[in-house]
Write a structure and sequence with these properties.
Blueprint (H helix, E strand, L loop, with lengths): L3 H12 L3 H6 L1 H22 L11 H4 L20 E5 L10 E6 L4 E7 L4 H13 L1 H8 L2 H7 L21 H4 L4 E7 L1 H4 L4 H11 L1 H10 L3
Antiparallel strand pairs: 1-2, 2-3, 3-4
Length: 219
Amino acid sequence: MIQRKTLEFLKKLSANNSREWFHANRALYDAARADVAEFVTLLLGEMSKFDHTLTGVEAEDCLFRIFRDTRFSREKTPYKTNFGSFMKSGGRTTPGAGYYLHIEPGNSFVSGGIYMPPAPLLLAIRTAIARDPASFKKIIAAPALVKLFGGLSGETLLTAPKGFPRDHPEIELLRYKHYMVFREIPEKTVLSKEFASACIEAFMAMRKFNAYLNEVMGL
């Protein structure tokens, strides 16, 4: 389970987001990151039982750096105020669909699929759905996925994507900019013994969704 002191560190960092404070409290960061890494290691061990592509993947392959890249961002604070982990074969830098865990005070969640895919991959997904919508609709209509996530999440285009007719019968599915699912996790759950099982249940429900996306993208 995630320790309360991990969320307390993130709250303090949010209120003191400077290099001076961070370096003075580096020990708190190291302890918090180790706590999250231990939790992700536990998740990977359980997830590899139903998704064999995760076998051998380590927590450090999946955890994002806390240092913010401010070069092309309006947000100029030097540090992120969350711990994020993208779990898939090859780790966080590997393109494709996977499982994401986000730990942040008041804004923790799990999600899956692919966010902001490059144009060729997005086209591959849309093309596959347009050619055989029944296969994709069956996956996103699975009872476990619907129960935990409701349906697809994310932005959509206002009109049809380039190359697809506006009157396509599945145009609502083709208009998505991302193909992902999302579920908020209350802080009470994050700090409980049930957090790991809640994550694993959610990730298990999205396994076929991720597998479909990776297959049609050729990954």
